Each structure stands twice: as C-alpha cells, then as structure tokens.
Amino acid sequence: MGKNIEVKKIKNKKYIELLGVLVTIIIIIIMAGTAYSYAYNYRFTHKSDEIDMYNNSITYYYRDNEKRVNLQKTYTISDNWLSKMLIHKEEIETIGTNTTIYGPYTWLPAGKYKVTFDFTEEGGSAFEYWDVCVNFGNDVMDKQKWSSIGDVTITGTGASVQSPHYWRDSRNMPHLEYYVNTTGDAADYELRLYFTNNQGYDLPTGGSDNMDAKKAFLQSVKIEAVEANTIYAFDSETDAISNANGKELTKTYWGQMRSNVSVPTKAGYTFMGWYGYRHAVNDGSDRKTLKFGTDQDKEKVKLWNSDGTPAIDTEVSYYDYSVWAEWKQNNLEFNANEGDLKYPGDNINNPNGNRTNVVHPTWLESSYCYMNGDIPTRKGYIFNGWFRYHDDGNWWEKIYDADGIAVKEDTSCFWYWNGNYAWHSTDYVTLYANWLPDYNLKVDGDEGVYKVTGKDMEGNDIIIENGKQYSYHYSQSAPTYIYLKEGYEIDYIVETSNNKYWDDTTYNSSLGRYENSWVMNDDRTIYIHTKPINYKITYNLDGGSVSTDNRTTYTTKDEFTLINPIKQGYVFSGWSGTELSGGANTTVTIMKGSVGDRNYTAHWIEEVAPQPVLKTSSQKGISTTNYESGEYIETGTVVTVKAEVKKGYKFKCWADADGNVVSTDVEYTFTMPDEDVSLLAYAKQKNADIIITKASSTMYNDTLLKRVEGDDKWYDEVGKYGIDVLKEYTYDKCVQVWQINSDREIKRIK
C-alpha cells in the first residue's frame, strides 16, 4: 500500500497532499476517542492520604477518572467493624438467600489485609455466599460459595481476594477468612455476606443498623494489615527528630488494637507516657512515603499511657513511625485548682505564679525542715487545705491543713517528728487546693408574702429580694425573717431543690414575723407558701331570717354583700356592726383586703298598715283637678273630687282607671275604699256657631252638610260623600252655607 501511495504522490502531488490531510484527521479522531475511553486503568486513582492518629481516621484524596474530578473521603478505622456494617432483607432466589450483611465502607492503603468474620453458631449455619464490592458499588466480583478456596479478582480495580477459607474452631464456632491485596486506589470496600434465613428478625429492604440483628449472625468483623509497623522509641522529641539513639518499642498492625509496651525510668523524673505526632501525610503510592510531623503540623498526641497501656487503642498508621518519652521532673507543685495563690516567689512560702507554682523542697532523711504552704483564695469558696491524689487507689490525702500547716502525722510527703517535718518523697508531687464552695440561698414566695429580710455573709442586715441569690460560706447559717401581708398566714415552706417540706418555722409575735435559719451545706432554694386567714362573721338578726344564709367566714381575698333579712310585721331599717356607722346601713359590702372577725346586728321598724292613694288627672278642656299630686286618704273617708272646666267646654264625666264612667257631675263625692283610686276628668267642646258647607252635587237638591271638628260622630254620611271627602271642600266653593245651633237647629245663611 505504501508503494501505491508513493506512485500517486508522483503522479498527483495535490491529491496526495489532500489524502494526507484526511488520514491525519482520521488518526487524530481515533486517538482522541482512545484518549477519552482508555486513558485510565482504574476508575479511582490514589492522589494522597492523611492520617489522624487521635481519632483513628484516614482521609483519602483521589481522582474519579470517570467523572474527571478530584474528590476526598474520610474513614474512621476500627478494630471491630461490626458496628459499621448494615443488614437488610434481600431475596435472591438464584442463590437461595434472603438476608444480607454488608459494609463497612473503608479505604485500604496499598498492601495486603486479612479480613476475618467471626460468626455465631446460627450465623455460620445460615451463611451461604460472600463477595467484595468497591468504588461505591461500581466494581464487584462474582458471589463466592462459603466453601470457595480460590483467588478472585475484583474487576477494574487492581485488587484481588486471596486464600478464602471457612472453618470451625475447637469450640465449633464458624469463621470466614480471606486476604485483600490492593494497590490503594480502590475505595469504599463493601464486604458482603449472604444468609439463607433472617434468624427471626423482620428486616427492612433498605440498610438497617439493627445491632441485635447483626449480632444474631456475627460476633466481630476485623480488617488487619498483614505487614507490621515498627515503632521506634526515643528519649525525647529532639532525639526522635534527629533519629538519635532510637530503639524498637513494639510492632503494630493497621486496624489492630495496640498492645502494652515497656515503661522507661529516669532518675529525678516521672514518666508521663509515649507521645508521637498526630498527623501523617502520604503524597505517593508507596507505604514507605508516609511522613509524620511535617514542618507545618507537629501537633503531638499521647499514644501509650504512663503505665504502658494504649492511650489510643486502634492502630491507624500503615507504616513505621517514632514515639518519644515525655518526662516530668520530680518536684513539689502547688496547683491552686482555679484559685489564686497569695505569694509570688520560688520557695514554699513564696510560690511562683498565680495559679500553680513549682518549688524544690529540701529533703534529707537525716535532717528536718519546717514546711508551710500557701493559703490561696478563690471567689465563692473557702480553702480547706492542700491534698495529694493517689491514682493507685483513687483517694485524696491531706498534706496541709486550711491554715497552710503540714498535718502533724507521717504522710507520703513528710516524716513528722516533734513539730518538725522532713520531706521524703522522690516523686514529682502535685498538691491541689481543696475548696469548700460557697452556696447560694434563694427565697421566693407567693402573693401573701410582704417581704423577707435576713443577714448576708458578713452579718449585715439585708432585704432578701424575690428570686435573687445570696452567697454564704460552707456550713454558715443564713437567717431569714418572713413578714406576711395582713390577712395571711404561713401554710408551709418547701425547699424546691429536694422537695423537702418545713413546718418548724417560728412566729415572733412581738416583731410580727416568722423566723428560720438555714445551714448552708448546699445551694438552697426556698419557696414560702401562704394561705388567707379564715375570719368569722357573727350575725344577730333579732328575730329576722334570710332566704339564703349569709357567709359565716371570709378571707382577705373575698368580696361580697350581705343579704338583708326579713321579719313579719317589720321593715328592715339597716345593719350596725364592725366598721359601720349607726344602724341604718341597708347595703353592707365586705371589700377585698378586709381582715378580722366581724359582728353585724339587724335593725327593724314596726310596719304600719298602708293607706290608699287618691289621684286625679284630666283630659282636654279641664284646667285642673283637686288631687292631681295624689294623697293618702284613710279608708272610709268621704271625699269629693272637683274639676275646673275651661271656657268653651262643658264637663262630660269622671272615669276610673279602666275607663268606666263613675259620675257626670263636675263634683263627685264618694267613700274612700281600701285601695288606690285613680280618676280621670273629661270635658267636651260646646257646639255653638258650627259651620256646615254646601258641596257641588246632583243629589239631595245639590246640598250636602258637613260638621266641623268635634261633631263628626253626629252623622256618618250626607248624600253619597263620606265625612273625609266633605272636609276637602272650602267655604268659598260651596253654593250654600248653613248654620247649626247648640240645639241642632239648621238655618240657611247663604
């Protein structure tokens, strides 16, 4: 083919050049497609990682080649991963399982790791298949039978599972073990186990953290590095940095609990523990490039305690590292324990510093020295002496008393003899100030409390305000004096902090107050409950009675009005008694705030037979009557009522209250009955000179009659026209005019 191209090139140079361009374009397209699809071997690629020894975590920084982004994830390493596993219901008919346990999701640095599942007896019997899934479930191996012993590759990860082995130990307990060999790129290892029954647990289809259910199948899940870390020990951090005089302390394994280590000694010093650097970083893919204590981060952490036991149990480092001993010089230290030391200086009487001081006491077994301690202060507390803590027995030993004098007996610090003291301890001794706290008193009360007074810590008189706290020294007595509002008495006093009730308060009648004294051995909150006093009410009704009994007791919170009594043949004239003036108090109200017992007496006036009333009134045409204002008239009295008639009117009649005419005489005389009489006088207008008008009509000789006001009842209708219609005709419109006199005689005048 090369030759043909060469011939064409000779024959047509432009054609060959164009063909070359097309071939180049095709190659570029193919290469570009190849670069997009096959530029990475694995989906995840390790970029770096960071270890935190303090909290057993590893932060994995990686490249997601499929998404083309850099990501990170932090994992906490454990020596038993069971708590980080999940369990759920999963019906897989093809393999006959219905329950799956999976997790714990972690990253494994490059290397080889042993995975061990310790089953329960029932879990081992139900166990059927297992597999390993990584990279958030994107890469997975085939499910393996419990009896499988062959190596398996996890496709697309560079990781493999080797030497699987299921067995039962001498106690017939089942176990599964295999090894994971990884390049350190794959992440989120998900170790899955499949079981043929659910052990009676009703599990959800989603992941559950039901520990009881998980423990029905498994006792523990361990992931441990096969390769050991060598831990090198140095006498100091400086030696560790310079790598001088180091020696092997122990070996550890990633994911495994640290074991106990040896404890060094140093004359004049106390060993405080083995320390190392907290953080380590690995920017490469090799385990050996893990670096601790970079220049930017030299934070320290205690890894083994002063007794050689692990301070942090689980090993999270996957490569060697160094530790160094921390020492504390054997001295005497006074720790004011949040208080303030009194003296500055560098001897026992002049401590150096405000909260703690270190002194160098003279101690020779053949000589004696008199030792005094400082007396520190602390707001809210009383100094109770210097104490030493013994962690071997978890107890405190008093070395100095509250006056700063060493106790007069042998102690772990001093030998005592004849008033002298010899320091004999070779340890670094820390003495802690012991404090007896001040305690707070708070007093509250309900509405019946007027005020509470007392004395403060210094013995000054104070008014104790509601809800305010007052401080007192330990065991000091705090007096309280309770004054109540008038009308109240103590019901009970309760200490709300312990719900204790106090009923032994003393009443001082000369000072009008209740007195208590509280021993301040704790914070105390006192609440005063009062109750209104019940006062008596006594009544003297003098033969009277009430429909509803009046109250016989009351309190200062009540308000009510007395019910007035009644008595046959008498009229109630009023009350006399407590806080009343005279005996004519017909309305007596006991107001809120009243106090004291009360006495009330009812007063009466003999009832007189009632006299009837005569009253007159009048209608139009009457100017006055003689009993218009009404008067009492004794029954049986002969009485005359009179009416004065206005001009133009004449008297018509007297009528009673029901409208019945009783007389047509203007003066009416009668005998007064035993009941009220009401009479109404009537008059009527005289009918002289009344005009009748003639209205146009063809009936009755064209004449119609119409009376004026006051005489309309004299007829109903004249001709065909009713009265209302006739009233519409005026005098000037009439053809004829007629006149009627008082005797009803008609005369034509027009």
Write the layout of secondary structure elements.
Layout: H1 2-11, H2 13-38, E1 44-52, E2 57-64, E3 69-76, E4 86-92, E5 97-102, E6 111-119, H3 121-126, E7 127-134, E8 139-140, E9 144-145, E10 152-154, E11 159-168, E12 174-182, E13 190-195, H4 211-215, E14 218-225, E15 229-234, H5 237-242, E16 247-252, E17 269-277, E18 279-282, E19 291-292, E20 300-304, E21 321-329, E22 332-335, E23 356-359, E24 381-390, E25 395-400, E26 414-417, E27 420-423, E28 429-437, E29 439-445, E30 449-455, E31 461-464, E32 469-472, E33 476-484, E34 488-495, E35 500-502, E36 506-508, E37 513-520, E38 524-532, E39 535-540, E40 553-554, E41 560-561, E42 570-577, E43 589-590, E44 598-606, E45 613-618, E46 622-625, E47 631-632, E48 638-645, E49 649-655, E50 661-663, E51 667-671, E52 677-685, E53 690-693, E54 717-718, E55 721-722, H6 723-726, E56 737-740, E57 746-748
Parallel strand pairs: 15-21, 22-28, 29-38, 39-44, 45-52
Antiparallel strand pairs: 1-2, 1-18, 2-3, 4-5, 5-13, 6-12, 6-14, 7-8, 7-9, 7-13, 10-11, 11-12, 15-16, 17-20, 17-21, 18-19, 22-23, 24-25, 24-28, 26-27, 29-32, 30-31, 30-33, 33-37, 34-35, 34-38, 36-37, 39-40, 41-43, 42-44, 45-47, 46-48, 48-51, 49-50, 49-52, 53-56, 54-55, 56-57
Helix pairs in contact: 1-2
